[in-house]
Specification:
447 residues, alpha/beta, eight-stranded mixed beta sheet, 15 helices
């Protein structure tokens, strides 16, 4: 296969998967695409937290058909290997794959050079593993080694540009999540070539550190090991309040940047004031226990003044949208819940859930839609109506899910209003807990 060649089959699949990806996400935002060099060989170097979702976040939101480099052991099956090659994924052999296989990397590097010589794009995760957390792992030497070897084999004339890339999800596996893809200022490999010619190891380390330093401002990175989960919870509870306190309007990018500042301050607090951090964490845990006891979410408490008005307005909206919900739910429920239950039951690592949902969805949903049109098509008067019916199915499914989320929100608001009417003491206790927590955070975390 000529990886450097533009592929029509790949392009068609990309359009379909892009549509499926849009259905799965609530919002997709890209930032810094103008920084991606034109007419230059490129290597994308993204952080890695969420299995297949991470390469999708890069390849679906750029104009390229990037060639990914992946560990060779996933190519053992001939069928899988053929699929991976169609998807422009090349094997990289490591010592653990057998010393006798290392020579096979020559073909990989030859193919990589062809991609770069044609101003194409390679992509490789510098961490070489996904963490499943908002914590960047230590970078390996693979990216520097590959670009230096490619430059050396091509006579140092490629001018490879490494594009540091940060991927942020508001949730790792939930359906209808948000994703932000940040592209950073490219790193010219030629800046390190002179050092590489005299001291390859030092140049490799220098470039590795430069890539790591360039990715950090593009991601949400919680350094704390002891309080990682607690800082994540604080971000969830306090994040939007912290953004508002800075006088910034809500957007996914603004919230991300605000959260960066928030977690950096929390890490600093832990380092400089461990006792106060411990007290803060204890207060957060107590507040969360109380919320869980009454099956409440923190945002309901924060927006308590608007709960009654929202309950009335949302009920009217839900009533008007009920026919759309029923239509979308009945025709999408079987594939959705089948996939959801199977993945939750069979896949133990949650960081793979969104990846399996996407892959299973792009296969199973069309099959179910074909069955539905065959079963119900006789009710539709013409070919045009049959086409409209099929086209409407995925959109109706997405609207049905939005209706369901709205229903969940109104249930939460109603539960909190009922608590106020039936147990005012407990209601006031939760309100006071949140106010005390926010006041403490306002004091400890400068905006």
């Amino acid at each position: 296969m000529k990886y450097e060649k533009w592929s029509l089959g790949y392009w068609c699949l990309k359009q379909y998967v892009t549509f499926a990806d849009w259905l799965i996400h609530k919002k997709i935002t890209t930032n810094g695409k103008e920084k991606i060099p034109q007419n230059k060989p490129i290597l994308f170097a993204p952080n890695h937290q969420n299995a297949l979702s991470d390469p999708m976040a890069v390849l679906l939101h750029t104009r390229f058909q990037p060639v990914w480099l992946a560990r060779a052991d996933i190519f053992k099956s001939k069928t899988v290997a053929a699929i991976l090659r169609f998807l422009k994924i090349m094997p990289v052999y490591r010592l653990r794959d057998g010393k006798e296989n290392l020579a096979k990397n020559d073909q990989t590097f030859t193919d990589s050079i062809k991609v770069l010589e044609n101003n194409g794009a390679l992509a490789l995760f510098p961490e070489a593993a996904h963490s499943g957390k908002r914590q960047m792992l230590a970078h390996k030497k693979a990216v520097p080694r590959i670009v230096f070897m490619a430059e050396e084999k091509a006579g140092y004339n490629l001018d490879i540009q490494i594009v540091p890339t940060g991927i942020y999800y508001n949730h790792y596996w939930k359906f209808n999540r948000c994703v932000l893809v940040n592209f950073g200022k490219p790193i010219p490999v030629q800046d390190y070539l002179e050092e590489y010619k005299t001291n390859p190891n030092a140049a490799t380390i220098s470039l590795r550190e430069a890539i790591s330093d360039a990715i950090l401002p593009l991601i949400l990175n919680i350094n704390s090991k002891k309080y990682y989960t607690d800082f994540e919870n604080i971000r969830e509870i306090y994040g939007k309040h912290f953004l508002k306190k800075q006088g910034k309007k809500y957007s996914l990018l603004n919230l991300f940047q605000s959260n960066q500042k928030l977690v950096a301050q929390l890490d600093k607090l832990e380092a400089e004031k461990p006792e106060e951090t411990e007290k803060l964490v204890s207060q957060v845990k107590e507040y969360q226990r109380n919320l869980k006891k009454h099956k409440l979410r923190s945002w309901v408490v924060e927006k308590r003044k608007s709960n009654l008005i929202n309950i009335i307005g949302t009920r009217l909206l839900l009533l008007m949208g009920l026919p759309v919900f029923l239509y979308g739910f009945l025709l999408n429920a079987i594939p959705y819940f089948t996939i959801d239950r199977l993945i939750r039951k069979k896949v133990k690592d949650r960081t793979f859930w969104s990846s399996f949902f996407l892959v299973a969805g792009i296969v199973l949903f069309p099959v179910i839609y074909i069955i539905e049109i065959l079963a119900l098509g006789w009710l539709l008067p013409s070919l045009l109506w049959k086409i409209i019916f099929v086209v409407s199915l995925p959109f109706a499914g997405k609207l049905a899910f939005q209706w369901y989320i709205l229903l969940r929100k109104i249930i939460g608001r109603t539960r909190f209003v009922m608590l106020k009417l039936t147990n005012k003491k407990e209601y006031q206790n939760i309100v006071q807990q949140q106010e005390n927590l926010f006041n403490l955070l306002d004091k400890l975390i400068p905006d």
